[in-house]
Amino acid sequence: xxxxxxxxxxxxxxxxxxxxxxxxxxxxxxxxxxxxxxxxxxxxxxxxxxxxxxxxxxxxxxxxxxxxxxxxxxxxxxxxxxxxxxxxxxxxxxxxxxxxxxxxxxxxxxxxxxxxxxxxxxxxxxxxxxxxxxxxxxxxxxxxxxxxxxxxxxxxxxxxxxx
Length: 163
What we know:
By secondary structure, this protein is mainly alpha-helical. The chain has a domain at 23-89 and 120-162. Helix content is 58%, strand content 5%. The chain has a two-stranded antiparallel ribbon with strand order 1-2. The longest helix is centred in the last third of the chain and has 29 residues, at 134-162.
């Protein structure tokens, strides 16, 4: 978290809660949280602390190994690749703008369908880890579900502490 963001958050008087929206006060409360997966993801993404990436990837890898009976090396590749997707969610074509401007004509980005989010296919995921199969696809899906659930629960818990 930059010093400017921290200063603004520490002096914020807005305690409103909106689902799927991170406010300044949520940032401060979450930074005080523990080292659960949600807290690590929050620090990694919102507070711009990339040093937590290695630990997050290992947590995801350990979960993938247990659930899908895959080897440690492959599980670590899957965990790192899933975290890479989490870290760079924007469409590479429009860079998250959802549309392309050509002269004065605005065109909805075909690569992301106007969502602004990168669409990762199972084929591209398989290429990242160097193998294929239903277990690989399921492991990626579980990693993404784990990250989404952990981050949502963490921010919700942080907000609950403030109410």
